[in-house]
TrEMBL record:
Protein name: Ras- protein raba3
UniProt similarity note: Belongs to the small GTPase superfamily. Rab family.
The organism of origin for this protein: Stylosanthes scabra
Domain of life: Eukaryota
Membrane-spanning residues: none
Length: 175
């Protein structure tokens, strides 16, 4: 049986956040269970897919990656179009990337559908000795803004799968 014919839903999820926080690696970890040590910064908008089963439904997650547009805040509204979920990623070792999260959320509120499910991700959780953002601060911010929250490591894979399943489950429960 051709899996494509049995897909129940395609869920578009966008990944945003400052450059170098690990967005592309999180995607690769989820889509291919890979971590690439010499990854080049992404060029051109791309997405990766993975099909998962949630509550007996076959769901194709289409995860979009920004393409070095982060620095210029040039992510276009086309990128957000049709997105049902968003992961806003910061690096737990880079305070500035967390301080910029509010701006990324503003971008989302301006361009994305109001019902979009948003998850805040503190990545590079393997670098505990270089932590610059306390978990409690992120939890508080997420609660204030009504976001789901998780700390992940694309390097070790910690929580990456769980975070994607959480957002996909949440989207599924509202479609
Ligand atoms: P992007 O610009 O947000 O797409 O970031 P990348 O995915 O290209 O990652 C930027 C850098 O951070 C690369 O050198 C990655 O190897 C590294 N990196 C990404 N995720 C992790 C992680 O979870 N732990 C550690 N230690 N390094 C990571
Ligand atoms: Mg990238």
């Amino acid at each position: 049986v051709n899996v494509a014919e049995r897909i129940d839903y395609v869920f578009k999820v966008v990944v945003i956040g400052d450059s170098a926080v690990g967005k592309t690696q999180i995607l690769s970890r989820f889509a291919k269970n890979e971590f690439c040590f010499d990854s080049k910064s992404t060029i051109g908008v791309e997405f990766q897919t993975r099909t998962v089963t949630i509550s007996g439904k076959l769901i194709k997650a289409q995860i979009w990656d920004t393409a070095g547009q982060e620095r210029y805040r040039a992510v276009t509204s086309a990128y957000y179009r049709g997105a049902l979920g968003a992961m806003v990623v910061y690096d737990i070792t880079k305070r500035q990337s967390f301080d910029h999260v509010a701006r990324w959320i503003e971008e989302l509120r301006a361009h994305a559908d109001t019902s979009i499910v948003i998850m805040l991700i503190g990545n590079k959780a393997d670098l505990l000795d270089r932590r610059a953002v306390r978990t409690e601060d992120a939890v508080e911010f997420a609660e204030d803004q009504g976001l789901f929250f998780s700390e992940t490591s694309a390097l070790t894979g910690e929580n990456v799968e769980t975070a994607f399943f959480k957002i996909l489950q949440q989207i599924h429960s509202v479609v």
